[in-house]
Amino acid sequence: MTRICIFHPNLGIGGAERLIIEIALSLKRQKHSITIFTNYHDKAHCFSESKDKLNVNCVFSWIPDSIFGGFKVYLAAFKTLLLTLYFILFYINEFDFVIVDQISVVSVPLLRTLNKTVVFYCHFPDQFLTERKSLIKKIYRIPIDWFEIFCIGLANKILVNSKFTLKVLTSFEKINDKYKRHENWIKIIYPCVRMNIPQNHCDISPYVPDETKYLFVSINRFNPMKLIQRILIGMQQLNADIDDEIWNQTHCVIMGGCDPVS
């Protein structure tokens, strides 16, 4: 039995959280010991498995996510620092290795300094998830952007969910140079969740015309940050680029859930 710790910043309801739950349950089914360490876990707003089937250790949840709507990335790094120090002080000898999810800053270098094996799951580099429209924002992001890539580069192993994410990650020279020397350093995990379809699965056939030959499916939470409108813009552009015969055989289905809290 391997003793595995998983770091995740916010164990709420979302795609990243669902993935972490699936990873933890899968490892648990293989008889490994699993504990999730997080900065936030509201038992009234989370996946049921995180309450009933998994060991979750939540600390420093009282620290805000932002100050007057700003400094989010630095507060996230600060909370990760506190979480990592808490783990080092009280639990480090109880685990064989650590899976760090989403936020590499601080936790990866500290754990590696103490000779802990670290697997980093990279959904997408954080610095690509924000805009820099002002000079102040550009200056604000410089330290954390550099430090993010530095920290990612220290992980023993990096996991990504697609060739696209791999391409984006290796666009950084430091990451690409190491990847060229050690191709097994970064591994694509796809699919990253169970693919068996439950009996009560959603049948979308009533929503798809019989003449459909080319089907596009977009699955996301209905949340403004997901920019679901981009699929509509893409379909509009596709309509302009193909002839009417093909367009009449093309259909798009947009589906997903809505979490009123997030």
Order of helices and strands: EHEHEHEHEHEHHEEHHE
Annotated CATH homologous superfamily of the largest domain: Glycogen Phosphorylase B
Distance between the termini: 37 Å
Low-pLDDT ranges: none
**Largest sheet, described in full?**
7 strands, parallel
Query: How many strands appear in the DSSP assignment?
Result: 9
Shape: globular
Protein name: Alpha-1,3/1,6-mannosyltransferase ALG2
Family: Belongs to the glycosyltransferase group 1 family.
Keywords: Endoplasmic reticulum, Glycosyltransferase, Membrane, Transferase, Transmembrane, Transmembrane helix
EC number: 2.4.1.132, 2.4.1.257
What attributes does this structure have?
Rossmann fold, 7-stranded parallel beta sheet, two-stranded parallel sheet, 9 helices, 37% helix, globular
Would you spell out the secondary-structure blueprint of this structure?
Blueprint: E1 3-8, H1 15-29, E2 33-38, H2 49-52, E3 55-58, H3 72-90, E4 97-101, H4 107-113, E5 117-121, H5 135-152, E6 157-160, H6 163-169, H7 173-181, E7 186-188, E8 214-219, H8 229-241, H9 244-247, E9 250-255
Q: Outline of this structure?
A:
By secondary structure, the chain is of the alpha/beta class. The protein has helices at 15-29, 49-52, 72-90, 107-113, 135-152, 163-169, 173-181, 229-241, 244-247, and strands spanning 3-8, 33-38, 55-58, 97-101, 117-121, 157-160, 186-188, 214-219, 250-255.
